[in-house]
Structure formats: structure tokens, C-alpha cells
Design a protein that fits this description.
This protein is mainly beta and 231 residues long. 10% of the residues lie in helices and 48% in strands.
Length: 231
């Protein structure tokens, strides 16, 4: 699910979209191009940071194609990528960093209501550095993710039409908490412009997402690497 320069190393969950990796050390008052978020503009000072960006949403295929998709989802319909608008904010309280990330995916024109609706997702996080020195920086983070009704229905729901075409029973969903998780991020600067970031992430699905018939495991674990260029 990772695009361009971002390389996914392992993934233990089959059917659920992975979270975007976050670019570190964005230059103040500058534009950035991130392999996960897309193109954006960032404002970053000592205590407060804000970024806005335009990118592309995750996808889900109902056919096995290479390392993507799953035949188990046959009949559910593929969730195609569509433009997303994002807003991220951070606030520093000493070594503690509070974060909020909002993402809006535009409606997919001429697409099925079950897979192409516009949706909104909110992620709240609290982070703290564990190490910073000659070998880069290690940051630990706890987070909670929330989705509106369209988001939860798109990724975890099963409509009557989807149930008639697939092996899954119909399943209604509601807006609210989607998951809780923890991340461990190691950022290693290569030079002033380039850096390499490794992220170990664990997510625990909650509420309607955890009980969805299309979910094989309520715990998702991933290890990923990302090359970041800042200017």
C-alpha cells in the first residue's frame, strides 16, 4: 500500500488500509512533497506546527493482483483511489507532542455508493521522544482514529448488494472510534535534505470495525521504511 519511495516491509493484516507515514522535520513556511501524503505546505515553529496537503486515498482491491488485493473480497467491489485533502497540527508541551490529523476523501464520480462515497477520518495522537543523538531520533506515540459513517461503511461495512455478491453477511456500521494504536518511529538523517524513517506500528480495531465480517484480525501490525526528501 505504500507508494513511490516508501517501501512496506511486512504487513500482518489483509483487508484493512494502512495508515500514512508522517514526514519528519519539515522546513518552516515551506512546501513539501511526501510519498504518503502528497503535495503540501507546512508551517513549523518550536511549539506549534501546521500542514495542509493534497494527496490520494488508499485503495482496496477485491481481486488478488501481485502483492495487492485479496480474492476473499470477491464481490465487495474495489475501493479506488480518489483525491484527499489533509490538515495536520501539532502542539509541543515540553517533550510531549499532541497531534491531530484530519483527512477528507472526495467522492468518486460515477462510482458505486458502497465504495466511492466521500469520507472523513480524524486521528489524535500523543508522542514523546525516547532517544535523540548520533544515531537519529526515536519517538513513541499513542493514537486513536475516528471515522464518519461513510468512512466506516466504506472500509468495514457490507451492504445488502455486497452481501448478495460476496461470501459475507450484510453488516451495518456507524461513525465513531475505529482503532487505537501505538507507533515507534526511528528517523535517521542522511544529510540536510534526505532522511530515512522506519516505523513499527500496532493498531487495535474497535467497535464496528473490529466486529466487521471482512476483518480477519482485530490487531494489525506493520513495519515500514520511508525515504523522505525535504526542501
Amino acid at each position: 500500500m505504500f507508494r513511490s519511495l516508501s517501501l512496506s516491509l511486512t504487513s500482518l493484516c489483509l483487508f484493512i488500509p494502512t495508515d500514512s507515514l508522517r514526514a519528519e522535520d519539515v522546513s518552516p513556511y515551506g512546501f513539501f512533497l511526501d510519498t504518503e501524503k502528497g503535495l503540501g505546505w507546512a508551517f513549523d515553529e518550536d511549539d506549534f506546527g501546521l500542514s495542509v496537503y493534497i494527496g490520494a486515498s488508499d485503495v482496496r482491491k477485491d481481486r488478488k493482483t501481485g502483492f495487492k488485493g485479496s480474492d476473499e473480497l470477491n464481490g465487495m467491489g474495489s475501493i479506488k483511489s480518489r483525491p484527499t485533502l489533509g490538515l495536520d497540527g501539532t502542539y509541543h508541551m515540553g517533550p510531549i507532542i499532541l497531534g491531530a490529523s484530519f483527512e477528507h476523501a472526495l467522492e468518486k464520480d460515477d462510482d458505486d455508493h458502497d465504495t466511492g462515497s466521500a469520507w472523513n477520518r480524524l486521528k489524535l495522537s500523543i508522542s514523546a521522544p525516547f532517544y535523540e543523538g548520533d544515531y537519529g531520533k526515536v519517538v513513541g506515540s499513542l493514537n486513536s482514529q475516528f471515522g464518519d459513517s461513510n468512512y466506516v461503511r466504506t472500509w468495514y461495512g457490507v451492504s445488502d448488494a455486497q452481501a448478495s455478491r460476496s461470501q459475507f453477511r450484510a453488516y451495518d456500521t456507524h461513525c465513531g472510534l475505529v482503532s487505537r494504536g501505538a507507533d515507534l518511529t526511528w528517523s535517521l538523517p542522511i544529510n540536510d535534505e534526505w532522511s530515512f524513517t522506519t516505523v513499527l506500528a500496532v493498531q487495535y480495531l474497535a467497535n464496528d470495525a473490529a466486529d466487521s465480517p471482512i476483518v480477519e484480525r482485530w490487531m494489525q501490525t506493520s513495519l515500514a521504511g520511508q525515504v523522505v526528501y525535504t526542501f
